[in-house]
Write a structure and sequence with these properties.
Blueprint: E1 2-4, E2 9-12, E3 15-18, E4 25-31, E5 34-41, E6 50-54, H1 61-72
Pfam families: DDE_Tnp_2
Protein name: ORF2 in transposon ISC1217
Length: 76
C-alpha cells in the first residue's frame, strides 16, 4: 500500500502516463515494472485528489484505503 504523487508515471497499455491524468477510479497498471492497482480518489477527506496503490492487484478499493489509513494515520 502506498500513495503516488501526481507526476509519478505508470505504464498503461504500453505507454508512460502521469497518474495525474487519470480520472477517479481503479486501474491495473505497472509502476517501475511492478503490476499495481491504482486507486484515484478525487477528494479524499477534503484533502484533494489522491493516488493510492497496492501491489496486490486483487485488493478492493476499500482494502487499499483501509490499509493506507491504518498504516499512515493510525485509523481503525
Amino acid at each position: 500500500m502506498g500513495e503516488l504523487k501526481s507526476n509519478a508515471r505508470v505504464n498503461e497499455g504500453g505507454r508512460s502516463v502521469p497518474v495525474g491524468e487519470f480520472p477517479q477510479g481503479e486501474y491495473l497498471v505497472e509502476y517501475l515494472g511492478v503490476p499495481i492497482k491504482l486507486l484515484v480518489v478525487d477528494d479524499y477527506k477534503g484533502l484533494g485528489k489522491r493516488y493510492f496503490f497496492s501491489t496486490n492487484v486483487n485488493d478492493t478499493s476499500e482494502d487499499i484505503i483501509t490499509s493506507w489509513e491504518s498504516r499512515c494515520w493510525g485509523f481503525d
